[in-house]
Amino acid sequence: MATMADVARSAGVSVATVSHVLNGTRPVLPHTRQSVLDAIDRLGYTPNTLARSLVTSRTRSIGLAVSATRNPYFTEILQGVEAAALDAGHGLLIADPHDDPAHERTVVQLLHERRVDGMIVAPSAAPRALVTYLARHDVPTVFLDRLVEVDAEGAQASGGAAGDGGPRFDQVCAESAEPTARLVAHLAGLGHRRIALIAGLPGLSTTRERIAGYRQGLAAAGLPHDESLLAHGDSESAGAERATAALLSLAAPPTALVTANNAMTLGALRALRDRGLSVPDDMALCCFDDFPWADLFSPRLTAIAQPGREIGTQAVRLLLERLAAPDRPARTVRLPCAFVHRTSCGCPEPGRPGAPERSPESGRSTQYPQPTQFERGTVS
Question: What predicted TM-score, i.e. pTM, was given to this entire model?
Answer without folding.
Answer: 0.77
